Amino acid sequence: MNDTYLIIILFGSFLGLMIMGAPISVSLGVAALSSFLYLGENPIKLVQVAFTSVGSFPLMALPAFVLAGALMEAAGISKRLVVLAESFAGPVTGGIGAATVLACMFFGAISGSGPATTAAVGMLMIPAMVKRGYDKGYASALTASAGGLGIIIPPSIPMVIFGISAIGMSVPREAIEMHGQFQTVSISKMFIAGVFPGLVISCSLLILNYIRCRRRGYQGTAEGWSFGTILHAMRSGFWSILAPLVILGGIYSGFFTPTESAIVAIFYTLFVGVFIYKELNWEKIVNSLETTTWLTGRILMILFTATIFGRVLVENQIPAIVAESMLSMTSNLYLIWAMIILFLLFVGMFMETLAAIMILTPVLLPVTYSLGIDPIHFGIVMICTLSIGFATPPLGENLFVAAGISDISLERVTNQALPFAFVSTLAVFIIAYFPEITLFLPRFFGY
Amino acid sequence: MGEKFKKFYIFMDKLEGYVCRALLAIFVTLLFAQIISRQIFGHSIAWSEELSVYMFVWFVYFGAAHAARLNAHNRVTFQYKLMPAWLPPKLEVFTDMVWVAFNSYFVYLSYDFVFNKMNLFWKSQTLGIPMKYIYIILPLGFTLITLRVLQVNYFKFIKGEEIIDPDSQEMGSLVNQAVATDTEEKSVDLGKK
């Protein structure tokens, strides 16, 4: 059969090259190109896609947010947010652990990356936890697990990428006939939808942190909350707290597009970093530009080849085949969600998050459309699930960062991190089974 | 002469990096100017969005070449640990040659597209520049990526140098920093405001 050969060529060359260690972008590109040649299509399409997939205004949010995050780190904005979160630790059992989760949430509100969140928060909070008698392994594991919040709490780079991938895809006509019109995907909508799911995952981490700390006897400080410290941290962190308000407020009020709000954040950070905190110098700015350059270059190379790969999939109705075979196993939506989540969890363990989103969105999004799942809801569940992969072996970047910061073995961190990965997974199931958690807020804001 | 050549070499080695920094700084500033002019002066600069998008595309493909020079393109490599030690280096060379082949074909395609198939009268909407000159980034960018891949392989396998990708480099510097801050405690200067 024609189709089976195509699937073998497409997925065979992709997986084969990937296992041999070729860059993901190249594996996708070669796979797509060979199916073009097999199908006898004109490969000139590749050239057009190379330009149009990258040349879009909403996509410029990606380098803008990367640059804004790098500058905020260099300008000392991130550090002050973490210090502020730390001042809330207080007398509760596991308080400083809870403050770490809180710090990751604050930090997630200005950064869109998991390892960056772990690094920035861990640098201050892991030593702080160890000082209060926490086990190094536990402290690192908690930070690594909460670091995943960086991509769930908006702004989030994976959400930008999901938005771009999803906007480029049309809804299958049969799906509309069966389930009615779907809402359109936009990056702003994703940013709003991510808030409550982020809180659900944070709560699950906070609860487990409380239970584990009580069992281990990690008490809070004896003095109780020090309002002086909190006030001091708030006053010196004033300009830092304003940063997420500028970014998210601008987007939520509809005043700015996500790209514009990232641009405003860049100049806000430059202003605060140079004139108020006076920590930003020429060298740091150049370094931030440099990091943004290679990160964007490599991510968008994947976007280009993943776009062609996705086109080949969709034009040959491969997602429909996937959907059919899933429905032939079960028609229970809860079981289908479970299959999708477990699959994403598996992929997230082995593959870089953004690459996974760009490859899987064209496969899974049409499938979920034909099952009547809301695209925004699916996107959020996908990103939440993939974020767990940051703190699971064998490729958990957050674990590497946290183990590096506290200078202990990876195994020790990993063992302590697995329970957190488990509750995060439970939280993802809750988010998947109750779509309102995700969909309420965008509707409330009238999007 | 030798000194001059060395300087020139260092400059060329990071050429795409410099170009990208400049492009990034310019289009970010351009977009900011557009926001200011729209929100404060109520005047929208017609050509700024288009120009910044084109600069962005140039930035992306120059950036991809720079990332290739830094050996930063994402690969899945955990399976290398399960293979006999002699295999991974061979696979690295092989996959890089696949990359070079793919790029060469793409350069041919895009060169053909830009110089033979594209209509010279197809101009950009607000700038009025022939699209041909904007699309030139595709053959140019992919040629640069190919050259950088070959350069990295030359360093790795002929000169025997190790090229550490920026991710691992960052991790290394994080660890060093953490060890340093561990001893001096957290000396966040809160009063610096």
Q: What class do helices, strands and sheet pairing of chain A give? A: mainly alpha
Tally of helical runs of chain A: 24
Mean pLDDT of chain B: 84
Alpha-beta classification of chain B:
mainly alpha
What is the arithmetic mean of pLDDT of chain A?
90
Helix content of chain A: over 70%
User: What portion of residues of chain B belong to β-strands?
Assistant: under 5%
End-to-end Cα distance of chain B = 50 Å
- Would you report the number of β strands of chain A? 0
Descriptive tags:
heterodimer; A: 447 residues; mainly alpha; 78% helix; B: mainly alpha
How would you briefly describe this protein structure?
Chain A has 447 residues and is mainly α.
Describe this structure as you would to a colleague.
- Chain A has one domain (53-440).
- Chain A is 78% helix and 0% strand.
- Chain A has helices spanning 2-19, 24-39, 44-52, 61-75, 77-87, 95-108, 114-131, 136-147, 149-152, 157-167, 173-179, 187-193, 195-216, 227-236, 238-252, 258-276, 282-315, 318-329, 333-350, 353-370, 375-388, 397-406, 410-433, 435-444.
- In chain A, α5 (77-87) runs antiparallel to α14.
- Chain A is globular and about 70 Å long.
- Chain B is mainly alpha-helical.
- In chain B, 70% of the residues lie in helices and 0% in strands.
- Chain B has helices at residues 2-13, 15-39, 48-69, 87-117, 131-135, 137-158, 166-184.
- The longest helix of chain B is centred in the middle third of the chain and has 31 residues, at 87-117.
- Chain B is globular and about 65 Å long.
- Chains A and B meet through α1, α2, α3, α4 and α5 of A and α2, α3, α4 and α7 of B.
